[in-house]
Write a structure and sequence with these properties.
- The protein has about 180 residues and is mostly beta strands.
- The protein is built from 1 helix and 10 strands, in the order H-E-E-E-E-E-E-E-E-E-E.
- An 8-stranded antiparallel β-barrel has the order 1-2-3-4-5-8-9-10. A two-stranded antiparallel ribbon has the order 6-7.
- The longest helix has 20 residues.
- The N terminus is likely disordered.
């Protein structure tokens, strides 16, 4: 099964727009902007900015479904990958669940879609598609308790194309996020 880059861009853009519209309908709920740093094998590092938009709350407010939208820059160190820097820009749209374990602690997880400006390559490994799936699990702490204005979140994320096309080496990131409510 082969899906072209062009055939995937429109559905991803439509999905991101639908998530934004659904989240905007929940205008009374707080939005969280974030910056994120991450690392992976072979000296890959990533920086991202994004927004987590509230979509639906249930379970007496302890469960939240959010639309998580971001743009990231993945880069490998030039001395690791044959002397040339490998750089990729990645857009991501992920429906993410958050469980508020207490006024201070929460857990998060989600499965979403990514679209890159080029096929990711690093240290002899390469993705075969511009689009991939991203799954994450994480834990966060609200730095100001029940006010929920500032948070730090530690996440692990796996990105791959789910074997739609070979090769499919995937990439695993460890990420640290700072979130701020606006």
């Amino acid at each position: 099964m082969s899906i072209s880059k062009k055939s995937f861009v429109l559905p991803l853009a439509a999905a991101a727009l639908a998530l934004c519209q659904a989240a905007a309908a929940q205008s009374a709920a707080p939005r969280l902007g974030y910056v994120q740093l991450g690392v992976a094998e072979h000296n890959v590092h990533t920086e991202a900015v994004g927004v987590r938009l509230p979509w639906h709350t249930f379970g007496n407010g302890r469960w939240q479904l959010d639309a998580d939208l971001s743009v990231a820059h993945w880069s490998s160190r030039p001395w690791i990958d044959g002397g040339s820097r490998r750089s990729t820009v990645v857009f991501e749209a992920t429906p993410a669940f958050r469980f508020e374990a207490s006024n201070y602690l929460y857990l998060t997880g989600g499965i979403g879609l990514t679209l890159a400006n080029r096929k990711y390559r690093n240290h002899g490994r390469r993705f075969s598609t511009f689009y991939n799936f991203a799954t994450h699990l994480g834990a966060g702490v609200w730095l100001d308790g029940a006010q929920r204005t500032h948070a730090l979140e530690l996440r692990v994320q796996h990105v791959s194309n789910a074997s739609i096309k070979k090769p499919n080496p995937g990439e695993d990131f460890v990420q640290l996020r700072y979130l701020h409510r606006f």
